[in-house]
């Protein structure tokens, strides 16, 4: 990728839509950081903001509390993540009803990781939904929800091959998923090839790239190895030697993510999902670079002119 290829195009911001992902906080300190982040990102008017669901439903209460607060205290539209791990169908259905009663209309429906940890064999609950496709089908018959599902440009690590992966994605789309959101990736060619193959496999829902700003390269590299995402050598080189230099690390991270997003815009992509890690600064900077401005920023700009 050539970083000088992109000039600031004032019309990009009109064409690009974003969504943001948060995780439910564990402590008061984390809660305060999340709400600072939400407050900073809210004026960017994302299409929706999603709140993850911990392994085995471990964050059910915290996910619900976070979603409720977003509904009650912000103008944002929340999407609740749901997983099937270690839960019978009626338990999952009850949680979906609980969210729907709260006013939630959007969900991210997932199978979830094995309860014994990533890398172990997944065993569905004997009375549970076996995978994302079954969950989508059940949710869609419970209400006319907007349902996002997962997609894996580098293949899900448990999948024997891409054909199995596309088969699952097609089942999720056929059962009523509105869009797929991808696992994060750093090589845009992989994403583009994946979307082309999905279309050839008869999958026509939008496949929204999931973008992970690199807050901490070492952590991202470890996490990528576990979830089967490739860390290209050029990316490692960019962050080389910056472990103890957080300021330069943040500047490089924002340039890397902006480059990735701008390249995807050039390739015709208009929707982006940001894994925020409950931190605003990098996401805010990247959105600014692709022309998504808060009303406060615009107002300050015109006052200065
Ligand atoms: P599915 O869509 O059901 O399956 C994914 C792929 O795995 C399939 O394509 C299939 O090929 C393969 N597969 C599934 N089951 C089997 C099997 N039994 N044997 C062999 N292959 C199989 N996790 C959380 O815990 N909470 C979250 O909030 C959360 N949010 C996420 C959001 C996004 C956008 C993404 C991409 C992932 C998220 N995850 C989350 C991680 C996700 O739960 C894991 O990747 C999990 O391992 C698979 O869930 P899924 O819904 O993708 O599975």
From TrEMBL:
InterPro entries attached to this UniProt entry: FAD-linked_oxidoreductase-like, Mehydrof_redctse-like, MTHF_reductase_bac
E.C. no: 1.5.1.54
GO molecular function, one term: methylenetetrahydrofolate reductase [NAD(P)H] activity
Protein's UniProt keywords contain Transcription: no
Top-level enzyme category: oxidoreductase
Metabolic or biological pathway, per its Swiss-Prot or TrEMBL entry: One-carbon metabolism; tetrahydrofolate interconversion; Amino-acid biosynthesis; L-methionine biosynthesis via de novo pathway
Taxonomic superkingdom: Bacteria
Keyword Transmembrane attributed: no
Catalysis performed (reactions): (6S)-5-methyl-5,6,7,8-tetrahydrofolate + NAD(+) = (6R)-5,10-methylene-5,6,7,8-tetrahydrofolate + NADH + H(+)
Keywords: Amino-acid biosynthesis, FAD, Flavoprotein, Methionine biosynthesis, NAD, Oxidoreductase
Cofactor section: FAD
Pfam families with a match to the protein in the record: MTHFR
Stored NCBIfam families: fadh2
Family: Belongs to the methylenetetrahydrofolate reductase family.
Protein's recorded name: Methylenetetrahydrofolate reductase
């Amino acid at each position: 990728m050539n970083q000088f290829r992109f000039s600031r195009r004032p019309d990009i911001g009109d064409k690009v839509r974003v969504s943001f992902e948060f995780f439910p906080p564990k402590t008061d300190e984390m809660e305060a950081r999340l709400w600072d982040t939400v407050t900073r990102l809210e004026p960017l008017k994302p299409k929706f903001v999603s709140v993850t669901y911990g392994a085995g439903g471990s964050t059910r209460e915290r996910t619900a509390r976070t979603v409720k607060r977003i509904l009650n205290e912000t103008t944002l539209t929340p999407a609740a993540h749901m997983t099937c791990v270690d839960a019978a169908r009626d338990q999952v259905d009850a949680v979906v009803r609980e969210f729907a009663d709260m006013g939630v209309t959007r969900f991210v429906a997932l199978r979830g990781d094995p309860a014994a940890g990533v890398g172990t064999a997944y065993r569905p609950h004997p009375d549970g939904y076996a995978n994302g496709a079954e969950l989508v089908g059940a949710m869609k018959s419970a209400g006319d929800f907007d349902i996002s599902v997962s997609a894996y440009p580098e293949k899900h690590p448990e999948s024997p091959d891409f054909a199995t992966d596309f088969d699952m994605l097609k089942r999720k789309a056929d059962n009523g998923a509105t869009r797929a959101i991808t696992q994060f990736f750093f090589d845009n060619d992989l994403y583009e090839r994946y979307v082309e193959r999905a279309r050839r496999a008869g999958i026509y829902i939008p496949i929204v790239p999931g973008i992970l700003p690199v807050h901490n390269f070492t952590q991202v590299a470890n996490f990528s190895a576990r979830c089967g995402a490739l860390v290209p050598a050029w990316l490692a080189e960019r962050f080389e030697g910056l472990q103890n230099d957080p300021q330069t690390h943040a500047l490089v991270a924002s340039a890397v993510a902006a480059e990735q997003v701008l390249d995807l815009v050039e390739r015709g992509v208009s929707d982006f999902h940001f894994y925020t890690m409950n931190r605003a600064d990098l996401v805010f900077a990247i959105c600014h670079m692709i022309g998504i401005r808060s009303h406060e920023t615009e107002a300050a700009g015109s006052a200065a002119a």
